[in-house]
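Customer escalation, tier 2.

The customer says the design service returned an amino acid string that "doesn't look like it belongs to this structure." They asked us to rerun it and document both sides in this ticket. The original C-alpha cells are below, unchanged.
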C-alpha cells in the first residue's frame, strides 16, 4: 500500500513535480523514480557542514516532497514543521511520515507559508530554498511589478529573522521562473549576493555562501571565493544559485 501510494503521489504532474531526490530512507522502498536533478545531496552536504541540525527544531518552507525535512530528521533534528502549498506533495510527505514512523516528529501544513502571519514559533533552523522568486506567481500579490516584488522578497526573507536562529536560503535569477523576467540585469552571482547582503544586513549575519563547482566531474559546494564567484554557464542556471547560510541578528522572545 505504501509503495503504490507514494509512487502515485510522487509522479503526479505539477509545476514542481519530481523536483527533489527521494529521502534516503525511502530509496530502497521506491527504487529509482524520474526526477529533475537539483543536486539535493550535494546541497545537503554543504548545509550539514555549516548549520547545527542536531536537536534542532526546523521549519521547511516550500518543502516539496520532503527531502530536506526527512534528511534533517535523519541528521538529528528534533522536529520539523513542513509547509507546502501543493496538496500532492504534502500528502506524499504525510504518507512517508507514517511509513517511517515519524508522525510525532513532523507537522505537515498544506498551505503556502504566510510571511505576514507566521506560525509564531521559534525555530533553530529554517529552509527557504528557491521560493521567494515565485512571489506574485505561486504566492503573494500577482499584481506586483518586478521592483515591488524584489522588495517584498527581501521583506519575506527578513521576517523570518524574528523566529529563526539560522536560515538556509536560495533564490532563482528569474522572476516567477521566467527567463524573460530577470531579477538581476546580468544574471551574475555577484549581483545576487550584493542584493541579499545589502537587503538583509539589519536582520541577518551572512555566515556562509556556498557556490557550486564541478570537481572531477562531480558537483561540490564550496565557500564563495574570487575563483568561483563568476557565473559558469556550463553548470546551468540552477547550479549558479548560491546557498546562503544566515544567522539572525534579532532578539527572539517567542516560545
Amino acid at each position: 500500500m505504501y509503495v503504490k501510494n507514494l509512487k502515485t503521489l510522487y509522479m503526479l504532474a505539477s509545476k514542481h513535480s519530481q523536483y527533489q531526490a527521494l529521502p534516503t530512507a525511502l530509496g530502497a522502498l521506491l527504487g529509482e523514480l524520474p526526477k529533475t536533478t537539483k543536486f539535493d545531496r550535494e546541497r545537503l552536504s554543504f548545509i550539514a557542514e555549516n548549520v547545527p541540525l542536531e536537536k534542532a527544531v526546523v521549519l521547511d518552507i516550500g518543502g516539496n516532497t520532503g527531502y530536506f525535512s526527512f534528511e534533517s530528521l535523519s541528521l538529528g533534528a528534533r522536529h520539523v514543521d513542513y509547509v507546502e502549498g501543493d496538496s500532492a506533495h504534502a500528502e506524499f510527505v504525510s504518507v512517508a511520515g507514517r511509513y517511517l514512523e515519524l508522525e510525532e516528529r513532523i507537522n505537515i501544513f498544506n498551505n503556502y507559508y504566510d510571511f505576514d502571519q507566521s506560525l509564531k514559533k521559534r525555530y533553530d533552523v529554517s529552509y527557504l530554498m528557491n521560493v521567494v522568486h515565485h512571489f506574485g506567481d505561486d504566492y503573494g500579490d500577482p499584481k506586483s511589478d518586478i521592483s515591488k516584488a524584489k522588495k517584498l522578497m527581501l521583506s519575506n526573507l527578513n521576517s523570518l529573522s524574528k523566529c529563526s536562529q539560522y536560515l538556509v536560503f536560495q533564490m532563482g535569477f528569474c522572476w516567477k521562473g521566467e527567463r524573460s523576467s530577470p531579477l538581476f540585469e546580468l544574471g551574475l552571482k555577484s549581483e545576487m549576493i550584493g542584493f541579499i547582503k545589502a537587503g538583509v544586513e539589519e536582520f541577518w549575519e551572512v555566515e556562509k555562501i556556498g557556490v557550486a563547482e564541478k570537481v572531477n566531474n562531480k558537483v561540490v559546494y564550496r565557500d564563495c571565493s574570487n575563483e568561483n564567484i563568476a557565473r559558469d554557464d556550463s553548470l546551468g542556471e540552477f547550479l549558479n544559485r548560491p546557498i546562503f547560510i544566515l544567522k539572525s541578528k534579532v532578539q527572539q522572545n517567542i516560545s
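Tier 2 assessment: The sequence is consistent with the input. The mean pLDDT is 90. Residues 146-159 form the longest helix (14 residues). Sent an explanation to the customer and offered a walkthrough call.
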